Amino acid sequence: MKVKHKDSLTRTLLISISLLTIGILLWIIAYIFVNGISHIDLVKLFPPMVSTLFIVVIGLAISAPIGIGAAIYLNEYAKDGKFVRGIRFATESLAAVPSILFGLFGMMFFQINLKLGFSMLSGALTVSMMVLPTIVKTTEEALKTVPTSYREGSLALGATKYATIAKVVLPSALPGILTGIVLGMGRIVGETAAIYLTAGTMYRLPLSAMESGRTLAVHLYLLAKEGISFDEAYGTALVLLVVILCLNLTTYFIGNKLNKSSSK
Q1: Distance CA 226, CA 57 (A)
Q2: ∠ at Cα 102 (101, 107), nearest 5°?
Q3: 233-237: long-range contacts, CB 8 A cutoff, minimum separation 24
Q4: Which domain of life is it from (predicted)?
């Protein structure tokens, strides 16, 4: 009876915590929606949206190949030792660095030393370092979920290790890899401090990666910080929230699709 009572109590506690989490999320969404739905101006938000797109595309184009490649090396090629443990420790440490420090580093190195100035490229290079640990970790965990029998079967049929990884392991781990990429994308979209110090705050439509601009998150920050318009800030927050929710839903949809196709 005591065991059943403890199980029931634990179940009730976990359900309550889950409902509380969902309730907080719905409350935030509803609050932003009510205050921002009537203040959305997509014409004014077009330049920040383009700037955000620049940062996301360039940042992921840099971090995704490096992160996926590093995870493949760690999980498929490297043998456990001091070097591998050092890489994993460095990756975990990089994930714990505050974004403002990434911004200061990007400002000093990319903006000043490399003379890239306030530009989309400076911001993208900075955020690519921020999301790299996320992509490495999620990709490595996704690769670990692929059964060893898949690798052994492919090698037994005469396939090379490279062919096994490219045609057997990676397709099976693709849902998890995509999840890491989209999580990184979500962090880039919502980042403020690092982009504020590297890409700039100028309200303009960037036509190249070497021009400065203002992302949606930075635009929201400036509207609220300077007290320019809290109504516009709520409208921008709603657009930003919709973008992030769409990314999460896209990840869920793609992951389910790929899981269903791989199970057939």
Answers
A1: 29
A2: 95
A3: 234/32, 234/35, 234/36, 234/39, 235/36, 235/37, 235/38, 235/39, 235/40, 235/41, 235/45, 236/36, 236/45, 236/48, 237/32, 237/36
A4: Bacteria
Q: How far is CA 148 from CA 18, 106, 153, 169, in A?
A: 35, 41, 9, 9
Nearest in space to 95 (alpha carbons), one of 183, 195, 174: 183
pLDDT tens for the chain, 264 residues: list them.
Answer: 556 667 788 888 889 999 999 999 899 889 988 988 888 888 888 999 899 989 998 999 999 999 999 999 988 888 888 888 888 888 888 888 888 899 999 999 998 899 888 999 999 999 999 999 999 999 999 999 888 888 888 888 888 888 888 888 888 888 888 888 888 888 898 888 899 899 988 888 888 889 998 999 998 888 887 766 788 888 888 988 888 887 778 777 776 776 666 555
**Cα Rg of the chain (Å, integer):** 22
Q: Where are the alpha helices (DSSP H) in the chain?
A: 2-36, 42-72, 82-95, 99-106, 120-144, 148-156, 161-164, 170-190, 193-198, 216-225, 230-263
- The identity of residue 76, as a single letter, is E
Cβ atoms < 10 Å from Cβ of 105 = 17
Asked if residues 255 and 171 have their Cβ atoms less than 8 Å apart, the reply is no
CB 32 within 8 A of CB 237: yes
Closest CA to 58 of 199, 166, 177: 199
The pair of structure tokens assigned to 181 is 């990429």
The pTM of this model reads 0.82
First and final CA of the chain: distance in angstroms? 44
